[in-house]
Each structure stands twice: as structure tokens, then as C-alpha cells.
Design a protein that fits this description.
It is a single chain. The protein is α/β, with parallel strands linked by helices. It has six helices and nine strands; from the N terminus they run H-E-E-E-H-E-E-H-H-E-E-H-H-E-E. The protein has one domain: Glycosidases (TIM Barrel, Alpha-Beta Barrel), CATH 3.20.20. Helices cover about 35% and strands about 15% of the residues. Helix 3 packs parallel to helix 6. It is an enzyme of class 3 (hydrolase).
Length: about 230
């Protein structure tokens, strides 16, 4: 009924492909979690979620480690995102053809932004803490081991053990401090791998979004110091 109303009045819609848990900021305590079937898989396999060093997992979105792993009822994470986008496009094809859906925002991580959930308030983070690396699920750990072997340094197949906790300051850690391990051969390798994993996820999802939505404007949000929309 809503879409018929939009069509009748020639409203223009911006739609959001939200592949993450959404907590309402206007509607109070409203929480829209991941689909039930995903949560049921997660109950038996916590590694489908981003995980920090103490083993706490974050159910806000799927880890990018499952992008190419068939752990979601026989599908990979990328296939699930693609199937959802394709189904939406097919269902509302007439609105796309008439230009009433003017843009599509693609969720790429927690809060819909291209970022790791490293600053999780639910886990105790408070500004201006450095946050924590989120690569301890078994799928990202396996990816890290493969990357380290390819570089010929299997000993590098680990996340930093001196990066502090959520609320540490850079100078309090051995990794982020001035002349810290971040600038060592291992540190540069790890940060390059960690960053490239994020970039690969964006490339994979956005290439399929472009295929599905074709000429429709695509919007993504990239976390720097503040959310910044990018229009494709």
C-alpha cells in the first residue's frame, strides 16, 4: 500500500539495503536485528560474527570472513547480499523503471558504514579509546594465516597482542605508540591485511550492487572521523 501511495503521488524514494542490525535513534529502544534464520545459524556458529580478542562476538553484522564461505544455508555471505538486492530489484522493478526510486544506499558494515565494529559501546568502548581489532573469528583467522604463509612469515599469523583494549590511548600501547610495532615489518603486514580485507568486502558487494541496480545512484558511507556519504 505504501509503494502504491508513493507511485500515485510521484514521490521519490531513497532505499537502504541494511545488512546490519539497526537500533532506532528516534524511535527509542526499537531494535531490528539480523534475520531470524541468520541468528539461528549464529547460535550454533558464533564465528559468523566479528569477534574481538576476548572472544566476545558482535551480532550487529556478519564478519567479512564469511564473504566466500558457504555457511549460510549453503550460501556465502556475498551470495546472500546479492540475492537480497536482486529480489528487491525484481519486486519493485516498476518503481525503478519509472525513476521513483532515485538512489540505493548499500550497507557495508556495522551501522551501515564501511568499518569494523571496533568501537562497540555494548562492549564498553568510550571515546576517545583506540578500540579493538575485530578479526578473531575462525574465518578471518584462517585468512590471516594464509596471508602470512604467502609472505613467507607464518609467525605473523596473529593479531597484535600489545594493542591495548577498547579504552586505551595510543601512547599506552606498544603497538600504536610513537615508534610502536605498527611501523615494524609485522605491523605493516598486519595493517595492510586488515585494511585490504575491508576493501575487498566493499569491492565485492558494490560490484554486485552496480550489476543489480544498474543506472540507479548508489550511496555508501565510509567511516573516517565522521560518517561521510560517497555517491557512485
Amino acid at each position: 500500500m505504501f509503494f502504491l501511495f508513493v507511485k500515485y503521488l510521484f514521490f521519490f524514494l531513497k532505499v537502504v539495503m541494511a545488512f546490519h542490525e539497526c537500533e532506532g535513534r528516534v524511535s527509542g529502544d526499537t531494535l531490528i536485528s539480523l534475520p531470524k534464520w541468520v541468528s539461528e545459524i549464529g547460535n550454533n556458529n558464533h564465528d559468523i560474527y566479528f569477534t574481538e580478542c576476548e572472544g566476545r562476538w558482535n551480532t550487529e553484522c556478519l564478519t567479512w570472513g564469511v564473504d566466500k564461505e558457504r555457511v549460510l544455508q549453503g550460501r556465502t555471505g556475498i551470495e546472500v547480499y546479492y540475492d537480497f538486492m536482486r529480489s528487491f530489484r525484481t519486486e519493485f522493478e516498476d518503481l525503478f523503471e519509472e525513476g521513483l526510486i532515485s538512489s540505493v544506499e548499500i550497507g557495508l558494515g556495522s551501522s551501515g558504514e564501511l568499518k569494523y565494529p571496533s568501537f562497540a559501546e555494548r562492549n564498553g568502548w568510550r571515546y576517545p579509546g583506540v578500540g579493538e581489532f575485530q578479526c578473531y573469528d575462525k574465518y578471518l583467522q584462517e585468512n590471516l594465516r594464509d596471508a602470512a604463509r604467502l609472505r613467507g612469515h607464518s609467525i605473523w599469523a596473529r593479531a597484535p597482542d600489545n594493542a591495548g583494549d577498547y579504552n586505551s590511548r595510543p601512547h599506552e600501547t606498544g603497538f600504536f605508540c610513537d615508534r610502536g610495532d605498527y611501523d615494524s615489518s609485522y605491523g605493516r603486514f598486519f595493517l595492510q591485511w586488515y585494511t585490504q580485507t575491508l576493501i575487498d568486502h566493499a569491492d565485492n558487494v558494490l560490484s554486485l550492487a552496480t550489476l543489480v541496480f544498474q543506472a540507479t545512484e548508489i550511496i555508501v558511507k565510509v567511516r573516517r572521523w565522521a560518517p561521510m556519504p560517497i555517491y557512485l
